[in-house]
Amino acid sequence: MYDELTQRVIAHIAQVHAVPADDITPESTFEELDIDSLGAMSLVADLEIEMGVEVPNEELLKIKTVGQAADSLARVLAGAGAAGQVEAAAAPQA
Amino acid sequence: MTVGARRVAVTGVGAISALGADADAFWDALAAGRSGIGPIQGVDCTGLRFANGAEVRGYDPAGHFERRQSDLMDRFAQFGVVAAREAVAAAGVEWTPELREAAAVVTGACVGGQGAEEQGFVDVYQNGRRAHPLTVPRVMMNAAASQITMDLGLRGPAFTVSTACSSANHAIGQAFWMVRSGAAELAVAGGSEAPFAFGHLRSWDAIRAVSPDTCRPFSRDRKGMVIGEGAAMLVLEPLEAARARGAAVLAELVGFGMSADAHHLTAPSADGAARAVRAALRDAGVAPERVGYVNAHGTGTAANDPMETSALRAVFGPHADRLAVSATKSMHGHALGAAGALEAVATVLALRHGLLPPTANFTEADPECDLDVVPNQARRAEVEHAISNSFAFGGLNAVLAFRTARE
Questions:
Q1: Interface membership of A45 toward B (CB under 8 Å)
Q2: Which of A16, A61, B267, B398 is paired with B211 by a 20 to 30 Å CA distance?
């Protein structure tokens, strides 16, 4: 079973792109999932808004797989925790 | 009409509005004189001087789009695609690769992706975040036109016209001229709008043109317009082509006229309006006496309705007393960049059914609006020609002229 964040990324892709969740793994590339670069950015943005964090711009464009998206979100979530919930305070839905 | 030009048929219409999810629901409400104006549900109107609007109720994007498609679109573009699909299906168009390449899409919008834009501003200014990466493609005024081309696979001339409340009439007029001249073999034309976003409503509140209760065009006690939303699209094609494929012709689009007031940013001018009506009749080659019905711009504001009355009197002279003039904004609200398209559909269906939709919410005659405004009850009437007026903030006027297809 994948970690919680990976599962969340997979669930979001499954919902938005109508792909069966069972067909998505951390190694799945967005290309394989027929998600173009705009779609990938949009996907990460949706999750960022849900979680009240922001992946750094320079990292955003390097995300090519489901696992990379989950890892990037995990890193900023950990950073946000350490940095005193700056992002979380800015985003009440988190 | 230009020598050698083709006649242009309306062979399909689609509409999503406060009066319902499709053109049938739209027409049923118009025919019954039933208004779609009610308390605004999509936006908290606390602090505004008005709380009523003509919203599209019960709209669920999932009923029309896969999530990956609807995610790319603001509500206004979704409405546009929904109405375009309905119009094309109703027209029963038989697509060939050649026809797709010669098919035009011309849409009107005045506000555009306001919901997406305001969310972007909240993220940036209030939440200190990046805007969503889809903000720009959701907001852009041409989003509905672009999405319609992609959804229906139409590859000819496509663009969006933005002339405030005349946007859709200008759009339909341009499409009409393209089909008439041969620049396009078919056109999907209309307008779409979804202006119910708090910041935008605040701006309307500030200009004090919106009624605190309802929209009563031409009534002495009218208090202003009521904002609406939705989309309407028409399929236009050469009359001969429509007949050749056995399509039902709903009405003929016969004329289009434009003018600029060059006068005032918000106060309308009867001279400008009258010149646009005359231009449409001249373009159609139709004498004023042959017009039986006017779908008025009829916003229900203090300024518009007497101005429109004197413009119609100036054009039609004594015949103005024999004209039926109704303002269907009393029912579907003022849908801004979509208004002309909803009213064009109302006009086409009025000719089609031989029934003139009324001016709803009418209470008391105003001597300054002394026309036959078809108060509150639809009227059975076989009309040969009808015009549909749109006059915009900024003084940009556009009028369409239609002819019945009934024998």
A1: yes
A2: B398
